Automatic annotation (TrEMBL):
A Pfam match: UvrC_RNaseH_dom
Domain UVR: 210-245
UniProt KW keywords: Cytoplasm, DNA damage, DNA excision, DNA repair, Excision nuclease, SOS response
Family according to the record: Belongs to the UvrC family.
The organism's taxonomic lineage, starting at the top: Bacteria, Bacillati, Actinomycetota, Actinomycetes, Mycobacteriales
Region (Disordered): 645-704
Protein name as it appears in the record: UvrABC system protein C
Coiled coil feature spans: none
Biased amino acid composition, Acidic residues: 695-704
Cytoplasm found in the keyword field: yes
Organism from which the protein derives: Fodinicola feengrottensis
Domain UvrC family homology region profile: 261-519
Subcellular location: Cytoplasm
Self-association state and partner proteins as the record states: Interacts with UvrB in an incision complex.
Amino acid sequence: MGVPDPATYRPATGTIPESPGVYRFRDQTGRVVYVGKAKSLRSRLNSYFADPGGLHPRTYQMVTTAASVDWTVVGTEVEALQLEYSWIKEYDPRFNVRYRDDKSYPSLAVTLYEEYPRLLVMRGPKRKGVRYFGPYSHAWAIRETLDLLLRVFPSRTCSAGVFKRSGQIGRPCLLGYIGKCSAPCVGRVSAEEHRAIVEDFCDFMAGKTDQMIRRLEKDMRAASDDLDFERAARLRDDIGALRRALEKQAVVFGDGTDADVVAFAEDPLEAAVQVFHVRGGRVRGQRGWVTEKVSDVDTGQLVEQFCTQIYGGEDSEAVPREVLVPQLPEDAEALSSWLTGLRGSRVDLRVPQRGDKRALMETVQRNAGQSLTQHKLRRAGDLTVRSQALAEIADALGLDDAPLRIECYDISHVQGTDVVGSMVVFEDGVPRKSEYRRFAVRGEGTIVEGERGPDDTAAMAEVLRRRFARYLSERESSSGVVGEGIDPETGKPKKFAYAPNLLVVDGGAPQVSSAAAVLSELGITDVVLCGLAKRLEEVWLPGEDYPVILPRTSEGLYLLQRVRDEAHRFAITYHRQKRSKRMTASALDSVPGLGETRRKALLKHFGSLKKLRAASVQDITDVPGIGLHTAQAVHTALGGVAANAEGGPATVGQSSSPGEGESAGVGLGEPDSSYGENRSAGDAIAFDAATGEVLEPDAGEGQQ
């Protein structure tokens, strides 16, 4: 059975309506593989049948898997949302993003449908007639809170069998004796009285906490006035229990907002989503998913699909008054209207910009990022999975043995400045951080302004040439003796003594060709080379016209991605450190004999470079540790700076007027890539180029 050609089932021109609607792509067997909606069906569907070369690879895979398309016209975008949700739920299409709720998340449930409602921990799909609070991360958190609240709201928690048996023998269970159940099983309270207790519990859990505590305090004072001190003491203890329960739920929104805060962390293949459920201003629960991105979707589309799938199947009470998201979808108004219809009152869908809501969004975002990282680490950390990944890579690249040592290289810069390279090493599928190396690129990969753009391939070639030249040199010096690769003086492995089984470069065919040329130039033939293209996740081999496509769920692809991402992270870290050092150079650095300690003393004494510049030699000598000779040198250096440009300092060493290739008022930094090789970013001093005020340096990420 051949692959369908989209042109064979493309609808005739003009037959597709311009109305809003929902469409279905079906494969050759009639199975629905994708469901989508559009404001204009004609515009959206025509985009699928455009030049295949312009389609995203996953979209191209979808249209070539499908063999037909049909659609249904609706009246409004809200109706389109509802129908899209219904069809996704009915057909479960393989190319739609699907959020599989983790059924392990427990909730606190109240069985309101029973004559004597029961409080219990419940998992799994929601049932009709049951009110849910949560979900919570752990069942013990529910039981701990419930244990505190039962003394205030003594409700039934026992199973139907225990409840029936207690009624038959006329004796309650232990909770009835210790006051944590009102014992409706033996008639201590009526069904109506027990339901009233349960409803008070639900009100408290729903956020009416202040009202409940005020009522209990009023009853306590009344009991004290009536000299019923025993009841007053019991109410006092109840109030304390309620407050202890509230302490376990931190207030995040002071206005008592009901909201769901949603954030995503994505990579090209997967997306992790985290939701914090805030009710009454307090975080009542948290949920998370990791879903495969089986189609080409951005964050806005993930938000829309999340809302339709998660809220579409839940009761109206599960939809909050606000849904805070990182990015609004294109039809945000229609989605908000649809959620409003589900809730029965207005639902705001918006992106928080500032304040407590923005801060909580950042917290949820960090949780999503950690969730995605942990998901990947769980896959990479298992020995069996690592072995499978290495075997899949060997099979895909035609290797005789699994690549036990993998090296990956990446280049980082900002518009060609501070160009750096990174080398990371994975041995047996695990990072070997002691073997990581970094390179400051100063050759062809650097940029001469006005001549050409950034040349990543030249920078990559320089890094590989330097790395493997060292490898050849150290191998030659070892002369094949036992202990090859070990430094005889230190007993430690030499820095570049071992060649990789597999060399990975971050990039596609151009980067691979450049790397292959370097290996050929150096005469290295025993290293397998490949490149991983970031956008399409394709594996490129030297001299091949087409890439190797690993399955999207392949453990081998996951390992290559992780190696590539680690190389990128390590390169970014070094780039930030170099950029920080370059930007923190100051006019005081040029003063001979003035070390870091006395520079800091000067700035601390005067407060800013501007005030130091205005000081006399005598004023400078008032600083402890600064003698007359040093004070004169500082005054001379800063006096030269002051004469350069009116209204602001210029870089030390520049002429008073801009020459060819220079500009006035560039700033205090001297963009010398060799600056600060023996200084850490944390020790450097930065200044505002306009005011001379001391700034805090951005040291970036720490070194490995």
